[in-house]
């Protein structure tokens, strides 16, 4: 039975927007993220509000230093502490409050006479919140980082790192595939003959289809990739690869020790998923589920103790071989999806052996593998050439079409925003200044900052157009200007802009702006 909590501990749900039956997948309300430095408190985000609906692609644009990446890291709770800290606000994901009880994680006291503050962190509660976020982060919410080399470990192979993500978030389907393999359903002699005939054909047009059919009959889709890469390019003497076919089918036959290991890993994965479900329930309802989690942890330790004999190094290497091989070929499949040509070689390699664009594609494969509900893409195509950019954007579009993934796209490229986004959020100095449908915002930009961004883009229909720039630079967020933060650079600034922070008003269908030049009805939910 769950322990009782006070009504103050239960967060009330956010109000739904008018005319919208289903609430947004992600709701960010009045998010504040500060960095406590020796020079002062950097107010990187100071009241950010926006939403991402189900199956929608939202673009987040703005100059360098305006807080786009900090927004992404705040949603996933990856802000480095210290010096950063998600100070306040609400982040609701499918009804779960990702910032539940955040006020209990630290106490902050301003230092009199300075712009600095003293932060006393309660690391036990911070650790609990990070464990709570593991229920959604990496599985339901994934992220493509702007610096992929900083997100990959150079001492582990690509297979090890992608496979770890696969086993953490898709362990049950992967293990069940190995357990349910049926190599006896395939006539090995006939399958080998079909593969040899397809391999001898110039260009090998049928090889992929033959390999796919064999994998489907055997019940292991990854077998398609193993057989395809075994014979790819071997048109002259494919008979030399026949032993590889026998070896490929051998990995589908698990012995009793291997089956015991797989069943143990499956039970542990089920217990881990149950713990994540309790964490998710806790964030949705506001009631603590600690007693249930403790009982699940005890069962997990018992299960680990019962299978302790499977942890003997030499025995474990033998027992885990079918699972390791399945993970390797699923990794090859994921790398193939992001347009990497030599997938097998890359899967066996290390991050430092790859170019920047290849590493970026590896990160994208890792983010897309769990088929998340929300994909946060922080400059996903910055390090890629134009042709690969188109492939990656098409891949993200296919994921959105196939399973309804919502995408938060952070980019400087307004051409990409115009091509792939449904709505656009314009950010400046830690504030959202304008939100609107992509077509309406490009056709009728309201905020002077948005107008300046669009005026700096060359137009194909007007090649003689003079490109403009926004004077000045992003302000110092330790001592930001009063009122509207854009007023020192704005050609339309009034006295009121220097004193009062503008309210958000609705100026059209789903089009809102924070500027004193407009006087529409005030809104709080957009």
Short overview:
By secondary structure, the chain is of the alpha/beta class. 41% of the residues lie in helices and 16% in strands.
Descriptive tags:
526 residues; alpha/beta; four-stranded antiparallel beta sheet; 14 strands; 41% helix; globular
Task: Tell me what the structure shows.
This protein is α/β, with parallel strands linked by helices. It is 41% helix and 16% strand. The protein is built from 19 helices and 14 strands. The chain has helices spanning 68-75, 123-133, 148-151, 158-169, 171-179, 188-200, 207-218, 223-231, 242-250, 256-285, 290-306, 313-319, 321-337, 343-348, 356-368, 386-403, 414-420, 438-443, 448-455, and strands at residues 26-36, 41-52, 57-61, 84-93, 96-97, 106-110, 117-121, 141-144, 374-378, 406-410, 423-428, 431-437, 504-506, 512-514. The protein has an eight-stranded mixed β-sheet, sandwiched between helices. Helix 8 (223-231) packs antiparallel against helix 9. The two termini are 38 Å apart. Mean pLDDT is 83; it is low at 1-20.
How is the biggest beta sheet arranged? 8 strands, mixed
Physical arrangement of strands within the biggest beta sheet = 8-9-10-3-11-12-14-13
Low-confidence stretches: 1-20
| Estimated structural class | alpha/beta
Portion of residues in beta strands equals 15-25%
Question: How far apart are the first and last residues' alpha carbons, in Å?
Answer: 38 Å
Q: What's the gyration radius in Å?
A: 27 Å
The count of strands amounts to: 14
- How many helices? 19
Shape: globular
Q: Assign a percent range to the helix content.
A: 40-55%
Mean pLDDT: 83
